[in-house]
Automatic annotation (TrEMBL):
It comes from the Eukaryota. PANTHER family: GLYCOSYLINOSITOL PHOSPHORYLCERAMIDE MANNOSYL TRANSFERASE 1. This is Glycosyl transferase 64 domain-containing protein. GO terms for molecular function: glycosyltransferase activity. It comes from Rhododendron simsii (Sims's rhododendron). Pfam families: Glyco_transf_64. Belongs to the glycosyltransferase 64 family. Residues 71-198, 237-357 form the Glycosyl transferase domain.
């Protein structure tokens, strides 16, 4: 009797284990099918007639934008020909590149050897019907404003502003370009920065509890605008402080992306040259600093929206720049407050959004 009961219990448990194993196998098989379907769907989308709607654009200054495919590489350089050669050699291998514009502000024109080398590099990568244009924009005056001089003969709407000592993998560049195409009025870049109210910043540091100045929302933006007067002070009784990378890292909040590595629409070159207050350009030229902050102010003032920070691998191939010098934060903070006074308000808008390429991460 007991042996029979034990046998029935054992059989019941074996059936339960078998059923559980079958269910588990079915779930795993279903997951595998989903993964395979997703993989083949991305590969065969063009053949199935699926269309990419990333080309639909937002409005810019009240009118519809229709961007031309590809982007122009606007690269700033100063007496670092080896770095320039290395950068151009890399970016010419990126498929979205349409043209290269080199901002040349040195007292002497580019050497024949440099021009010949870069021309050969461009020609060697201009294949499969793709012709990359190379042009030096030579300026008589040595000014940081030169990197944003209007370029009337650009064939593309998208501009990738880059320093000669920064290298991004082509996949990273193409992803950022795809992000920009969804919001062509925004600055899309890899190097985020933040602005703080000095009084709040001091309280945050003393309390060891960092809090973002303002998140991207309509009510917050309007509140920030209305609390700022033309003296560079704000309704909270403090000046603004420029926050470096550590401020962004700690809070996850930013209000600028630096133009040393960013996409923006070519129209901003015209606005910087012709519409932005001349006093700001004069300040940039005199102090040899903050042209990137000036561009961030200009775009934010035109759009009333924050920039977009894109995650990506960054390789810096040059030596340390002015950001490593003493007093850097103080000088940049002075720029922020000066520009606030020029605009009569704080146009920068803070956000905590970050664009990630979900194809390269497991959890998103």
């Amino acid at each position: 009797m007991r042996g029979s009961l034990l046998g029935r219990r054992t059989a019941t448990r074996l059936r339960q284990v078998a059923i559980s194993a079958v269910k588990s196998a079915k779930i795993k098989l279903l997951l595998c099918c989903c993964v395979l379907f997703a993989f083949f769907a991305t590969r065969t989308a063009p053949f199935l007639g699926w269309t990419d709607h990333a080309d639909s654009l937002n409005s810019f200054s009240g009118s519809r934008l229709y961007y031309r495919r590809g982007y122009a590489l606007l690269i700033n350089t100063w007496k670092r020909n080896d770095l320039l050669k290395q950068s151009i050699s890399h970016y010419t291998s990126c498929h979205g590149l349409d043209s290269i514009r080199i901002v040349w502000s040195e007292p002497n024109p580019p050497s024949d050897n440099l021009v010949k080398f870069l021309t050969q590099v461009v020609q060697s990568n201009s294949r499969d019907g793709r012709q990359i244009e190379l042009k030096f924009d030579i300026h008589e005056e040595d000014s940081l404003n030169n990197r944003f001089k209007e370029l009337k003969d650009l064939k593309t709407d998208a501009v990738l502003s880059i320093d000669d000592d920064i290298i991004f993998p082509c996949s990273t560049v193409e992803f950022a370009f795809s992000v920009w195409r969804t919001a062509p009025s925004a600055m899309v870049g890899w190097v985020p920065r933040m602005h703080w109210i000095e009084k709040l910043f001091e309280g945050v540091v003393n309390s060891n509890a960092l809090m973002p100045l303002c998140h991207c929302s309509e009510s917050c933006y309007l509140s920030e605008r209305s609390s700022t007067d033309v003296s560079g002070m704000n309704g909270n009784g403090g000046r603004y402080i420029y926050g470096g990378w550590w401020s962004v890292w700690w809070t996850g909040t930013y209000s600028m992306v630096l133009s040393k590595a960013a996409f923006f629409h070519k129209k901003y070159l015209s606005l910087y040259t012709n519409e932005m207050p001349a006093s700001i350009r004069e300040y940039v030229a005199k102090n040899r600093n903050c042209e990137d902050i000036a561009m961030s102010f200009l775009v934010a003032n035109a759009t009333g929206a924050p920039p977009i920070w894109v995650k990506g691998k960054i390789f810096e191939i040059g030596s340390t720049g002015i950001s490593s010098l003493g007093g850097h934060i103080e000088r940049r903070s002075e720029c922020v407050n000066r520009f606030v006074a020029e605009y009569g308000r704080m146009p920068l808008v803070s956000t905590s959004l970050k664009a990630l390429d979900s194809r390269n991460i497991w959890f998103w």
